[in-house]
Amino acid sequence: MRFFDAHCDTLDLLNDKNSLYDCDTHYNFKKAAKYDTHIQVAAIWIDADIHDPAERANALCERFKAETKNIGVIRTKHDLASANGVNVILGIEGGEPVGNDIKNLRCLFDKGVRVLTLVWNHDNAIGGCAALGNSGLTTFGKEVVSEMERLGIVVDVSHLSEKGFYDVYEVSKKPFIASHSNSKAVFPHFRNLTDEQFKCLIERRGVTGINFYPEFLGHNADIDSIAAHIEHFMALGGEDSVGLGSDFDGIECTPHGISGAEDLDKIANKLLRLNYSEELVEKISYKNMERVFGEILPNGKENENE
Q1: Which residues of 111-153 form beta strands (DSSP E)?
Q2: How large is the angle between the packed helices 53-67 and 102-110, nearest 10 degrees?
Q3: Residue 179 exposed, middle or buried by CB count within 10 Å (0-12, 13-18, 19+)
Q4: Contact 167, 137 (CB under 8 A)
Q5: Are 214 and 226 within 8 A, CB to CB?
Q6: Whose CB among 42, 119, 228, 257 lies 3.0–4.6 Å from 129's, allowing a Cys bridge?
Q7: CA 106 to CA 118: how far, in whole Å?
Q8: Alpha-carbon distance 115 to 80, whole Å?
Q9: Is 136 inside any structural domain?
Q10: pTM
């Protein structure tokens, strides 16, 4: 069984006494090794109120490099195509390390960053967040999106305002993702996507990753709640646009029946019991995200942990 999880925050929980191999967290390498192939986007979370963005990004990029010496690190199309076993992709949640200088984006790319969640819960030089209102992308933000596509960094619109979402839709030329966002029609939370937004993702051949946070799933959240969001998106024609974005270790609690990455197969089995074909379950659990990343990541044959 294969899984591609588009968002976790486990890097933020590391300290001098633990490691990504077996840390007491929702996700770790040992849990991921349960599956034939597991790809995890590991995000560096940036909160400008408590972090120096550049300092934090640099420090956790170095920690990521140290933690992944014996793990498949995906930076290129070739790395993705040859992925097997435990694999990770480096991301950043919150565009503050870019500041207002496009050169900083190129530096992040050089450090191995391949996903950028444009904003977190603060507006920044790139655009406005869903938590504060409906400011869209700035002029600089539009430049950032275009440069991300040129470099081979996946554009992530989770946390972005609705206006910002549509700005990305207008500016982008390639698929983009909402790495950890659910359906607003199923549960009306500002972090979830409207049906209209999801239809734009379908049109652009992008993907949303179903978020496991009970606050976004709905009351008394469990595996059935996860399935309900998937079912709604599927009813809108989302066969190629639904994936997983657990938000593991960025959420203080998980839905009933899910303790961490070791339980991802429970979701696949739930969908099989709902008469989803094995092929369709494979799309949701792995192939849809794999396709988008395969279109965006840069060419290259090296998988060097420099």
Answers
A1: 113-117
A2: 10
A3: buried
A4: yes
A5: no
A6: 119
A7: 15
A8: 14
A9: yes
A10: 0.97
| 126-145 burial code (b ≥16 CB/10 A, e <16) | bbbbbeeeebbbbebbbebb
Neighbours of 109 (CB within 10 A): 19
Q: CATH no. for residue 110? A: 3.20.20.140
Residues 39, 88: contact at Cβ < 8 Å? yes
Distances (CA, A) of 124 to 11, 49, 97, 224, 288: 22, 12, 10, 36, 30
Burial label for 13, CB within 10 Å (0-12, 13-18, 19+), is middle
- The whole-angstrom separation of Cα 102 and Cα 95 is 11
Residue 303 lies in a domain: no
Mean pLDDT by 10 residues, the chain (306 residues): 98 94 97 98 96 96 96 98 98 98 98 98 97 94 98 98 98 98 98 98 98 98 98 98 98 98 98 98 98 96 44
Residues 40 and 209: their CA atoms lie apart, in Å, by 12
Total tally of structural domains belonging to the chain: 1
In a domain, 148, yes or no: yes
Q: Is residue 301 part of a domain?
A: no
How many residues belong to the chain? 306
Parent domain of 101: 2-296
Quick count: other Cβ atoms within 10 Å of Cβ 55? 10
